[in-house]
Design goal:
With 92 residues, the protein is α+β, with helices and mostly antiparallel strands. Helix content is 45%, strand content 15%. The chain is elongated.
């Protein structure tokens, strides 16, 4: 091994990248299987209410329910557009 080998950047193989992506997809599917049936409807209704005030897309909102032995936590994440875009929508 030469001194120059330390400075080379190695790219991960396409197989390694595909494996990592597949692991993410499998984890996502497993987590969504344990969700209650009302969550998709809740997500849609929240999206409709938020869209009255902001131009957001369906990908901009996520609804998750986490459960442990003591409590359930409903987590809602919404990515809002930048402020300038919001002003244009509200003023029309």
């Amino acid at each position: 091994m030469s001194l120059l080998d330390y400075f080379k950047t190695t790219k991960p193989s396409s197989a390694a990248i595909a494996k990592e992506r597949l692991q993410i997809l499998v984890a996502h599917e497993r987590s969504s299987r344990n969700q209650p049936a009302y969550l998709p409807k809740l997500k849609q209704e929240l999206l409709e209410v938020i869209q009255k005030y902001f131009e957001v897309h369906e990908e901009s909102i996520s609804v998750n329910l986490e459960q442990d032995n003591e409590r359930e936590t409903l987590e809602i994440n919404v990515v809002f557009p930048d402020e300038e875009q919001s002003k244009k929508i509200i003023s029309t």
